[in-house]
Write a structure and sequence with these properties.
This protein is about 30% helix and about 25% strand. The protein has helices spanning about 85-95, 100-105, 130-140, 160-170, 175-185, 205-210, 240-255, 265-275, 285-300, 345-360, 435-450, 455-460; strands at about 5, 15-20, 30, 35-40, 45-50, 55-60, 65-70, 70-75, 120, 130, 225, 230, 255-265, 305-310, 310-315, 320, 325, 330, 335, 370-375, 395-410, 415-430. Helix 3 runs parallel beside helix 4 (about 160-170) and helix 5 runs parallel beside helix 6 (about 205-210). The longest helix is centred in the middle third of the chain and has 16 residues, at about 240-255.
């Protein structure tokens, strides 16, 4: 039985989805549970799996296209099943063919199609049938649809917007701005150039080759911008832009204040070593920091809060986010109900989430709903940094690398001595609208106390 695949709603505030990859082409067999396509969310790309076996029969949008959630994007059906009516319904919902026109043509098959779906331009058969959106897109792209041969995939062979975009994608030459300017200045058709740049892009030396000049440049030649060689230019879009916009908004709207403490990790590292020798599941320093943060947040619930509109919400539930560098950018998987877990349980849950984050397999439920975030760059050797608060949370803890330092310790007799200890900086970024300086200082001191006396972490 045929199934219409829709653009899924993967978040509460998600109204439009962007398709970033098709894993199937028309005619491919599909097995229930295997990924069919990927959708971009505000944090990562989510693979969407098939809900039934069948054949991938029809796709209505291309990679990079964005459509409103719940609109049809493809059809899976049994092989040979007639899906013509479903295709027409989907096209109508997408606005590619007016429903009124479809009904009129069905009721009056001997008459030509209604005017609103025909372009008033002559073709080989006197008229070219195209939707208004197709005509508009062609005009905006400078394409004369009367001068080119475009295969229509719409109702009764009509040209729809996707046909225009497909034609442009397949016939438009990708080139650097410098190569385009040079070709225009020399009166050269850039379509005649063989692109040797990234992904077949036409670069300057390709145009010079057409001019009969010897290009004294290397194969990695790139265009110049402000006198500097460029390796690659990528659009500031997608997940990178979403992350940037959210962090910019957070830093601009939330008055950040920062509180730093230096933590002696000697006892924690010794305890962790003993625990890891007694069990298969190895715990990390981040697991103990997360547990210490959970305990501190329960003691100071004002830090475990959020400002939403005109309300400050203090949470009893502690959902700890662990910032992870994923292929698509920074993402924060969330350990839900961490206040109910011990260190080992936190370690098990965080290990699975971090693995999924690095593979780009997190679901929205696994990276939303946090109440406090930890960003640990210690594994990269960073000695000190501050982090931007992950909205709508009130604070974030930045954890730096441990370094051997000379410190002064006092023994039981009150004698001071200089010793070498592994010292680590932690910095709390707090939203000053919600968290006062005294509270932030108390919270950071509590985490320091717990980490320097790690048995207290295990006992709580």
């Amino acid at each position: 039985m045929a199934e219409i695949i829709i653009m899924p709603k993967l978040g509460f505030n998600m109204s439009v989805g962007k398709l970033v990859a098709w894993y199937k082409e028309e005619g491919d067999k599909v097995t229930k549970g295997e990924p069919v396509f990927a959708v971009e969310t505000d944090k990562t790309n989510i693979d969407i799996e098939a809900t039934q076996d069948g054949v991938f029969r029809k796709k209505f949008i291309d990679e990079g296209d964005s459509v409103e959630v719940t609109l049809p994007i493809a059809i899976i059906s049994e092989e040979g099943e007639n899906i013509d009516s479903l295709i027409n319904d989907c096209l109508a919902r997408l606005g590619k063919i007016a429903e009124a026109t479809v009904k009129e043509e069905n009721s009056q098959p001997e008459k030509p199609a209604a005017p609103q779906v025909k372009a008033d331009v002559p073709g080989t058969d006197g008229m070219i049938k195209a939707t208004p959106r197709a005509r508009k897109t062609a005009a905006e792209k400078g394409l004369d649809i009367t001068a080119v041969n475009i295969a229509g995939t719409g109702y009764k062979g009509g040209i729809c917007e996707n046909d225009i975009l497909d034609y442009l994608a397949n016939h438009q030459v990708k080139s650097t701005p410098l190569a385009k300017r040079l070709a225009d200045a020399e009166g050269i058709d850039i379509k005649d150039a063989i692109g040797t740049g990234i992904n077949g892009k036409v670069i300057r030396k390709d145009v010079e080759a057409l001019m009969g000049k010897t290009a004294l440049v290397s194969e990695s030649d790139a265009e110049l911008i402000n006198g500097k060689e460029v390796i690659e230019i990528v659009d500031y879009t997608g997940v990178r832009k979403i992350i940037g916009d959210r962090l910019s908004q957070s830093f601009n709207e939330s008055p950040h204040v920062f509180f730093t403490q230096k933590v002696n990790l000697q006892k924690l590292l010794d305890l962790r070593k003993e625990i890891n020798t007694l069990q298969d599941k190895k715990t990390s320093v981040t697991d103990y920091i997360a547990k210490a943060a959970v305990n501190a947040l329960q003691k100071y619930p004002e830090v475990n809060s959020a400002l939403e509109g005109q309300r400050i919400i203090k949470y009893k539930t502690v959902n700890i986010g662990i910032a992870v560098a994923a292929p698509t950018g920074l993402i924060v998987p969330v350990i839900k109900n961490a206040e109910k877990m011990d260190v080992v349980e936190i370690s098990e849950v965080s290990g699975k989430l971090i693995g999924k984050a690095r593979d780009g397999k997190l679901t929205p439920n696994e990276y939303t709903g946090g109440t406090f975030t930890i960003s640990n760059l210690g594994m990269f050797g960073i000695e000190n940094f501050t982090a931007i608060i992950n909205p709508p949370e009130a604070a974030i803890l930045a954890v730096s690398a441990a370094r051997d330092e000379v410190v002064v310790e006092v023994d039981e007799q009150g004698n001071k001595e200089m010793v070498i200890r592994p010292m680590m900086n932690i910095t709390l970024s707090a939203d000053h609208r919600i968290i006062d300086g005294m509270l932030a200082a108390q919270f950071v001191d509590e985490i320091k106390e717990l980490l320097e006396n790690p048995l207290s972490i295990l006992l709580k």
